[in-house]
Amino acid sequence: MSIVKFLKDWSLLVGIVVGSLVYLLFTNVEFLVPIGDSCGPVLVSFLPVNIFFMLYLTFIKIKVHDMRPRKWHFILQMIRTSLAILAMIGCNLSGDTTMKLLWEGVFISVICPTAAAAPVITEKLGGNIASLTIYLLIANCFTIVIIPLLFPMVEKGANISFAFAAWMVMKRVLMVLGLPLFFALLSRKYLPCWVNWLKQFHNIGIYIWSFNLSIIMGITMRSLLHAPVSGWVLVALCAIPLVLSILQFSIGKAVGRYYGDSIGAGQALGQKNTVVGIWLTLSFLNPYATIAPCVYVIWQNIINALQLWYKGKYGYLKW
Predict the structure, then answer these.
(1) How far apart are CA 269 and CA 115, in angstroms?
(2) Who's near 245: CB < 8 A, 6+ residues apart?
(3) Is 84 within 8 Å of 151 (Cβ atoms)?
(4) Which of 180, 282, 313, 318 could form a disulfide with 55 if both were Cys (CB 3.0 to 4.6 A apart)?
(5) In Å, how far are 111, 147, 192, 263 from 81, measured between CA atoms?
(6) Residue 1: is its pLDDT beyond 60?
(7) pLDDT in tens, 131-151
(8) Is residue 212 part of a domain?
(9) Mean of per-residue pLDDT scores for the chain
(10) pLDDT-based confidence at 159, cuts 50/70/90?
(11) Cα–chain center distance at 68
């Protein structure tokens, strides 16, 4: 029973460790390498499906009349945009390639929209998932605008048009957020018995996310182990996301506390959808800058795991 309790309390950390170990095992043990090469892409392709079910199971608990914009939604967008602009200025003022690489890591770690898994964690922490869902939609609308505007300023040679970048982000928003929200609201209206049955499974959303996290950790390990950068640069690209994750969680919680929603606001600004950032960085910036958003995944989920443990043990969050 103690093992089951440990797995339940620390499922996010277990996902990180298992994903890392499985990647190392299937890339270093000779007879397992072919299995890893064939199964790895299949698992990655299942990420959107898993996210759909994870969000659907969370969104069926939302009441439509609770889904309204709040002041802190827009305040956090201004903070997020300001941080991205400061990082963009740092990129342009950098005198050498290495410093620009580090600033690009900062830029991508702050401009990423809120993670799709944020409502799942917010629910477990006792926050308002309806409010955070509206924030997710607002944040992604801002993303559709600020990414096409700021990316060409970070990398002058980036061949990216406003319309192309806006469409790519919008398509991801509709697929990842729009569809599960639409089907969840339909289910609440027309299939109440089905919804009530699903609500019995309280922790299934967090377990799906832990499984997804183990897959994402494989991508993260590949980026870390194959990055041809010097030792101190690699350390910096791993330390910068730690500082940024603590900073963004803290700012979000401080703003949210003023408006009575510190849990949701902390997750809104601190928990990032780094998959979008990784894709954009590989496409238009220095590909080695992807180390920063990859490592950010680790730090943000360590923070989430500690918050879940504290909430489970003491019944509230002190931070």
Answers:
(1) 9
(2) 270, 296, 299, 300, 303
(3) no
(4) 180
(5) 7, 10, 40, 21
(6) no
(7) 998 998 888 888 888 887 887
(8) yes
(9) 86
(10) low
(11) 23
